[in-house]
């Protein structure tokens, strides 16, 4: 999935996505992840030899439900197998992460991934890869090489992916993103295709499942009546959760990170599941996350509304403007640009601060002509004003992420909550002082939440 992580605990229907695969011989017509006999049609899964209880734990600063499986390991999302050292178990849901790291800060330096093939003795779980395994691996990594990633076979590296083969009908990864130290992929070449290898590599690169993105309910329905597998196990808790992260672009029904079952489009129709190639959305996601610090070039911009390019985000005009009033928080509105408007009212300086978050400064001037570089700020009542910038104020830090409409408009999410974004509030027309201030609103598929950045 193409998302940015955010610490959040959600209840049923609003949590963190982790979709558990079922046994290899289950029937896909029942909505289970099965081996259909055609490796290209199998969704990635880990088939545990033993299953324990469902637990709540933090991983990469996100709270997930996980399933205890073989020998004290934890299964996340159906195909991510974590060790106890990788997670922080929650007791009474009161414990919090020890670090501020997030999955999309865990990126491979210089997009270079080191790997080696397992060469040790065979275990009950895995063994040294065969030639067929290596052929599929090479085809899977080629998809990512075409997007600028470099894969280096070098067993001397300490930060490395170890490749293991199994015959249990499993395809699983040990990490989402760069973890440092040894990571691994275990893969059954008799049950899965090269595209499934690309899927598992996608996890190590930092992508989560597309069906787990925080805005998924705008695009898909979960088939809640189809959660009991043939063995009587209930997987509802997995589908009830979503990642606390923003999605890059619109929901991608062609993503190599999307699973095929227990879901439909919002209109009830199915989609074509594929593992043939990376989608345009997959490519956009890695381009964004691996370039998030420079995705928006530092500069001065107009923020223009999708579908109404003459409507801009600007500082409310008041004849009584003074230095004091500009400092104390002037409303931010959306209005039609006219020749009478002063450019300093609708010009914003955008620059990166840290970890993909940007500050957006107004270059408005007071009545004496002095520029006051105050920052776009979300207030406790969800309104937008400008106020003096403080680097540790999360209400002044913004993700600027490709939106749903096209490749040139963006959604602006406050760091404090990726379920919200800047939205125009329709108000009175006429004098600018009569317009309602813009507000932060729940993410939706509307033109008033999509903004172009025009120099």
TrEMBL record:
The active site is at residue 200. PROSITE patterns: ASTACIN (PS51864), PROKAR_LIPOPROTEIN (PS51257). Residues 91-294 form the Peptidase M12A domain. InterPro entries: MetalloPept_cat_dom_sf, Peptidase_M12A, Peptidase_Metallo, Ricin_B-like_lectins. GO terms for biological process: proteolysis. Zn(2+) binds at residues 199, 203, 209. The keyword Zinc applies. Its cofactor is Zn(2+). The keyword Phosphoprotein does not apply. GO terms for molecular function: metalloendopeptidase activity; zinc ion binding. It comes from the Bacteria. Binds 1 zinc ion per subunit. Keywords: Hydrolase, Metal-binding, Metalloprotease, Protease, Zinc. This is Peptidase M12A domain-containing protein.
């Amino acid at each position: 999935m193409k998302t940015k992580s955010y610490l959040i605990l959600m209840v049923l229907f609003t949590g963190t996505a982790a979709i558990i695969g079922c046994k290899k011989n289950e029937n896909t017509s029942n909505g289970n992840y099965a081996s259909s006999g055609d490796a290209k049609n199998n969704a990635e899964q880990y088939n545990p030899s033993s299953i324990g209880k469902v637990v709540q734990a933090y991983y990469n600063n996100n709270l997930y439900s996980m399933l205890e499986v073989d020998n004290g390991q934890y299964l996340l999302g159906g195909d991510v197998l974590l060790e106890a050292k990788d997670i922080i178990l929650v007791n009474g849901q009161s414990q919090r992460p020890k670090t501020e790291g997030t999955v999309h800060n865990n990126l491979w330096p210089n997009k270079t991934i080191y790997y080696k093939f397992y060469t040790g003795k065979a275990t009950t779980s895995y063994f040294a890869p065969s030639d067929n395994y290596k052929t599929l691996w090479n085809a899977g990594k080629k998809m990512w090489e075409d997007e600028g990633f470099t894969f280096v076979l070098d067993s001397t590296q300490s930060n490395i992916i170890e490749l293991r083969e199994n015959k249990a009908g499993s395809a699983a990864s040990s990490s989402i993103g760069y973890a440092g130290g040894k990571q691994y992929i275990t893969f059954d070449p008799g049950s899965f295709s090269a595209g499934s290898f690309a899927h598992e590599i996608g996890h190590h690169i930092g992508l989560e499942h597309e069906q787990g993105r925080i805005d998924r309910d705008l695009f898909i329905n979960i088939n809640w009546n189809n959660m009991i597998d043939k063995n009587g196990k209930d997987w509802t808790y997995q589908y009830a959760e979503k990642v606390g992260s923003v999605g890059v672009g619109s929901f991608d029904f062609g993503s190599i990170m999307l699973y095929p079952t227990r879901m439909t489009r919002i209109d009830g129709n199915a989609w074509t599941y594929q593992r043939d190639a990376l989608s345009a959305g997959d490519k956009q996601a890695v381009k964004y996350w691996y370039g998030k610090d420079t995705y928006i070039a530092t500069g001065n911009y107009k923020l223009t509304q999708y579908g109404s390019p003459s409507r801009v985000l600007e500082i409310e005009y008041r004849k009584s403007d003074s230095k004091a009033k500009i400092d104390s928080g002037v409303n931010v509105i959306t209005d039609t640009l006219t020749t009478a408007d002063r450019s300093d009212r609708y010009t914003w300086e955008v620059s990166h601060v840290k970890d993909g978050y940007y500050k957006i400064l107004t270059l408005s001037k007071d009545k004496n002509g002095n520029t006051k570089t105050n920052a776009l700020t979300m207030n406790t009542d969800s309104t937008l004003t400008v106020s003096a910038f403080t680097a540790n104020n999360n209400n002044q830090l913004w993700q600027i992420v490709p939106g749903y409409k096209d490749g040139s408009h963006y959604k602006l999410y406050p760091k404090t909550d990726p379920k919200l974004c800047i939205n125009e509030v329709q108000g009175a027309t006429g004098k600018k002082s009569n317009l309602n201030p813009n507000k932060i609103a729940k993410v939706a598929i509307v033109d008033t939440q999509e903004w172009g950045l025009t120099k």
